[in-house]
Design goal:
The protein is an alpha/beta fold and 237 residues long. It contains eight helices and nine strands. The protein has helices spanning 2-17, 31-39, 56-62, 85-91, 105-109, 134-142, 196-205, 221-230; strands at residues 21-23, 46-48, 71-73, 97-104, 122-128, 150-153, 184-187, 211-213, 234-236. The radius of gyration is 19 Å and the shape is elongated. The N and C termini lie far apart (43 Å). Mean pLDDT is 84; it is low at 9-20.
Length: 237
């Protein structure tokens, strides 16, 4: 009943005001309900549906907006959204911000070229590494985003036994020399892999880095935190 009223209200506003942004947080809207709301938006530049059922109907309704879309947040959906991400990256030439979770590595490495390479500034994602040799290729894909200012890796994906990213030299970090604009790096479980040599590499390659957020290996944490502090980079554990 609530969502029916929401649909009517939003669609009425759309017709009158050419509404450009739509964010529906924590309402647990169903896929068909979201699709109807999206279909009522003539020009959608920003879309967020957190903890909703953003599924195939919503995704189909959103496709005509891909050329215009600049911000998209479909993380923590009640339905899997990972398989949609490769198409989004390959179809949204103006995308600046993307937040998504449970993206399978095989979907990423086999995807079409990403058309948002010159626009994407913020990537919040959880990659699920289903085969260890995929990791190098995932890093190579990320290296095609030279304008990234914020890179955030969520925690490990545990439900299928898939692993998260190992963020270190030798595992693919060395491919990210292209991220010269990077200001924020957040590694949740992935930070456990960092060593002093990895931090040295970051400091040498990412001159604009201002913030590191994430847990570090307790055996070397003090040393690594001191390295960030000496480089005037804020550390949040």
């Amino acid at each position: 009943m609530f969502m029916s009223g929401l649909q009517e209200t939003v669609c009425s506003l759309v017709r009158q005001l050419a509404f450009m942004d739509l964010n529906i947080p924590n309402f647990h809207a169903l896929d068909d309900q979201l699709a109807k709301v999206i279909e009522g938006m003539p020009q959608l530049k920003e879309f967020g549906a957190i903890e909703c059922q953003f599924g195939p109907l919503s995704f189909t309704a959103l496709r005509p907006q891909f050329r215009m879309l600049r911000r998209l947040d479909i993380a923590f959906s009640d339905t899997p959204t990972g398989p949609m991400i490769p198409e989004i990256l390959a179809s949204c030439p103006q995308l600046e911000y993307l937040c998504a979770d449970d993206v399978m590595s095989e979907d990423i490495i086999d995807s079409e070229p990403w058309v948002c390479g010159q626009t994407l500034k913020a990537l919040y994602v959880r990659f699920c590494i289903t085969a260890r040799y995929h990791q190098q290729d995932v890093f190579k894909k990320i290296s095609q985003l030279p304008h990234l200012e914020s890179l955030v890796f969520f925690g490990l994906y545990r439900e299928t036994g898939s692993k998260g990213m190992e963020f270190r030299l030798g595992a693919g970090l060395e491919h990210l020399t292209t991220l010269k604009e990077l200001k924020e790096l957040s590694l949740f479980d992935a930070g456990d892999y960092l060593r002093a040599s990895d931090i040295e590499w970051m400091l040498g390659n990412w001159k604009k880095l201002q913030l590191f957020h994430g847990a570090l290996n307790t055996d070397v944490k003090d040393e690594l935190v001191a390295m960030f502090k000496d480089a005037h980079i804020q550390y949040i554990g």
